[in-house]
Amino acid sequence: MSESEDSILVIVTEEEGVATGGTESETRATDVLLESLVSLMRFFSNRRAFGIFGTFDFKPFSNCESCLSGKMTKQPFNKDNERANDLIEIIHTDVCGPFSHEARGGYRYFITFTDDFSRYGYVYLMRHKSEAFEKFKEFQNEVHNQHDRKIKFLRSARGGEYLSQEFDSHLKECGIVSQLTPPYTPQMNGVSERRNRTLLDMVRSMMCRSTLAISFWGHALETTSHILNKGSTKSIEKTPYEIWTGKKPKLSFLKIWGYEVYVKRTVSEKLKPSSSENKVFVARNGKFLEEKFLNHENTRNDIVEEDTSLPTIEPVTQQENVETQPETVEEVQTQDLRRSTRVRQEPDRYLGFLVSQDDGDVKEPTSYGEAVSGSESEQWQEAMDAEMQSMYDNLVLEAVERKSTEKGEKT
User: Fold this and answer.
1) What per-residue string of b and e applies to 18-44 under the rule 16 or more CB within 10 Å gives b?
2) Which of 138, 182, 191, 399 is the most exposed, having the fewest neighbouring CB atoms within 10 Å of its CB?
3) Looking at the DSSP assignment, which residues form a beta bridge with residue 90?
């Protein structure tokens, strides 16, 4: 059976109705189902004769506001983002913080700048979030002097530190295009977000492995940034350091962060150990106790923080093995505190306000009757009147009439 092109073509053969191969009840159920299906298709195919349905050429409806309110979802993110073709063409940046524990130097934030082409990153510690603009100018001057190239695009989140008037004016003067991501879409700034996550994961692992104070997380952060720049990544074939500098990285100087080391003293006496212990400073010569650290035998004491400034992390290219004995600490005998034997006297300016405790004649009254019947009754009455007047003026007291009881007594 066939009709016009807008009709439904239905073909049902008798063989299909009996080719069930089942029992008699199953064959009957199949026949009923096929008969119902044929009737339904004939009804739709002859819709024009009945005049119930029109054509099936429906047009798309406009957006349904109710459906948008109840079913709206986020749009998928395209993984094929635009990549830079050269160094310093696109710079990714983001600010992370504040942290509950301050780093040595009072730092609670850090800002990252990552080159899109080489994935080479810079990290700057900050005390306040408002220092982002100054750190960007510092980074801009450094990369311009090193590579003699200018930044073309600055890709960042829509944070307030990047939307200030001075930041925007500086970008326009330098010809830098600011690429701001939409609100609440960290996926659009994925390079910086992943860099921050990797840095913090490494910092937490390093701090958990060592016995240093939590305030050393700033040093750990700079160390992780140095390691990431010299390590491989999936985004590029070479290491970021090799693309950024044109030289292959050297990893022979790398040591496990946070374990014990003895450092050569710059000025030492002949009979005392030539190495220092439990100090914080920057030095070149030292002996690292790697075996002790790897065998979980490191039992370090509390670290004495002498230098309050934040030293920069520089690679050590040469080390001298100095085997010395740790410095012995002599016990200090504590002495009792010396007590002063001087007789304390009150200043003369307080004599008019002091009442001698040795004078037995001066005694404060304990009741209203004693106050009004004593030798100083007038002074006590003036003091009571002044106190009552003060409570009236401040509306903290209200005078009412006394109520009479059944026996005629007033309460």
Assistant:
1) eeeeeeeeeeeebeeeeeeeeeebeee
2) 399
3) 153
